[in-house]
Prior knowledge:
- Chain A is an alpha+beta fold.
- Helix content of chain A is about 65%, strand content about 5%.
- Chain A is globular.
- The model of chain B has no long low-confidence stretch (mean pLDDT about 85).
- Chain B folds into two domains: about 20-65, no CATH class; about 85-100 and about 155-365, MetI-like (MetI-like fold).
- Chain B has helices at about 25-30, 35-65, 70-80, 85-90, 90-95, 105-120, 130-150, 165-190, 195-210, 210-225, 235-260, 265-270, 275-305, 320-325, 335-365.
- The chains are: A alpha+beta, B mainly alpha.
Amino acid sequence: MSAIEYQAPSFKLEDLWTDRRWRxxxxxILALAGLFAFLAYIVNNTINNLQTLGIETGYGFxxxxxxxDISQTLIDYDSRSTHGRAxxxxxxxxxxxxxxxxxxxxxxxxxxxxxxxxxxxxxxxxMYCYVEFTRNVPLLLQILLWYALVVHSLPxxxxxxxxxxxxxxxxxxxxxxxxxxxxxSWIIFIALAxxxxxxxxxxxxxxxxxxxxxxxxxxxxxxxxxxxxxxxLAYFAAGQPxxxxxxxxxxxxxxxxLTLRPEFLALWFAxxxxxxxxxxxxxxxxxxxxxxxxxxxxxxxxxxxxxTMRLVILPQALRVILPPLISQYLNLTKNSSxxxxxxxxxxxxxxxxxxxxxxxxxxxxMSIVLAIYLTFSLSISMVMNWYNKRVALVEx
Amino acid sequence: xxxxxxxxxxxxxPDLPPPLGNRGAIKWMRENLFSSPTNTVLTLLGIYLIYLxxxxxxxxxxxxxxxxxxxxxxxxxxASGACWSVVIVRFDQxxxxxxxxxxxxxxxxxxxxxxxxxxPILFDKAPYRRGWFVFSLIYPxxxxxxxxxxxxxxxxxxxxxxxxxxxVLIGVTGIVASLPLGIVxxxxxxxxxxxxxxxxxxxxxxxxxxxxxxxxxxxxxxxNYFLPPGTYFDLLLRVLIMVTLFSxxxxxxxxxxxxxxxxxxxxxxxxxMGLSYWKMMGLVVLPQALKISIPGIxxxxxxxxxxxxxxxxxxxxxxxxxxxxxxxxxxxxxxSTELYIFIxxxxxxxxxxxxxxxxxxxxxxxxxxxx
Lengths: 396, 371
């Protein structure tokens, strides 16, 4: 072994480029230096600009009165409230539209995805047309189109359409009978929470029993009845504290009830219809990804079609469906920022729009908006990564 | 009945056609539309829905539509359908924006040249493809001088750009610039060099975590703070940069998916052959990875193309922005549906053909592995 002698690396300048190890370090240092130079340049410019323009910085303006109104709020808010409160209203409004959109888009998307695979030629073609027409037209255009339809094509409140008694559809939006919570209605919510917890516990118990003994309980119907019956019992036990507030026409608009304003309706419709077409494709691909042999093997084992779907096909399809589905949910949430085009007051329209224009605090306002979206997206994608690791096929 | 005698030798009689209910259209309908009670109900429901939706729509869309009226009032007087006159009268504006009328031949020319430049990229059977490629490579320079002027051509400010021309300009620039940037970002994210990896991850996750519209707001409100005082930075240029960065982050994720799908053996074999990093990536890994990623890349491009409509929110005059200004004209007030449907048709045609092309490409590049 004496022929091969270790030579201490003598460093030469050209090694920086010709030696792989040195080059790796050199490139990284170069990249870091470049990045820091770039950041320093931007920060330096910003400080200079702010000084020459004489703009104060800081988040103190969040405590100043906002002096603008927001048409739809989930919490108390008026024009004397602070910019900070306007931000919270915006966050809640974004959350509201995202939640509503996600629920309806999932329902519609799964229905369309399954119908698209149906053996019925007409239905499958109709779903294909729906998917292609909505996927290939910009969402902003669809939002504006729905908004124009609601505002221009629906009748005035005086001649509002009344598809069901107590529900009015007019160019001022959709008015529904709204619930009014009297004192003691908190019992119902507690009952609901208890019922959900109970249903989850029961599901776990049933799963354990199934895994050990093979006995299957009707989990879905029992959980559903727990969730429905318990709050109902609480409702009567507390002396019926919740009543419906029926809307009525007074003057030029409706009084009472729950009003879904045109901008909310348009945004909700458009987001649902647009996202559902993407979800339907995901669902279709997921179901198709489970090979037919799985179904046949399950039948050969004597498992009934219903249970085949639930125990064999769905768990495998969900592994394919869930990751892109969640990223569609994220897309929907981010797309809800288009609300600003129709004047729905979400986070971009409140702090990133009116507050920014009124106070001129562009830097602070935009950083808040970006931070909120980033927190939301990054936490969801962390959960997703965890889930993906958990369900990933264990390979060699 | 002399014909009743047997004319065929035993065993040679040609097959009789299947019963009427078991062939042709009837068989097809029985199998595809009425195979079970549920299917029958679904079919009837579908036919009813079509009956509800299509005739009134056709009535509005074409049968009762007006094509040559001078104003909305005249339209509504003459018929109850759509008033396409607004699209016809303002067609030039919807296509060119406020580009000077006498210079619009330059936009037309660059559109024609764009089509010419695209042929060798889209179809590998184009004749003289190599030479043609050179033209595709220098096309951006030609288009720049044609659209903005210079080199003896009268200059045109980008504030005058608008309409479909602006959509195509932003879309094509974004697509062309974001693909290489996206590939570089994907390589960075998979790199063994920690610093490059972290920078790539931060960039990609930041861009993907926020809506495009907030980035456009940053471009329109904050960029002035970030640059030295007095720097003038064209709004269109800022938008182009932001749109490119935005879709590059998405492309990077798609390409990363493709890179991850390449078996380790390919990397190891390439390294064993003594290929350097760039040769390994360029000759062995990327060709395979990009091939897998085509559907995702084209989907990202379609998304980018649709997202060009967002520029209206920061005040550029794309077709949507122009339709707002047309609607502000008292002559055409209230005809938003007609304008929006016209723009929707334009987007549908472009995006649908892109997705069809992606399917064609996928099938063409699908060598092996197909079951």
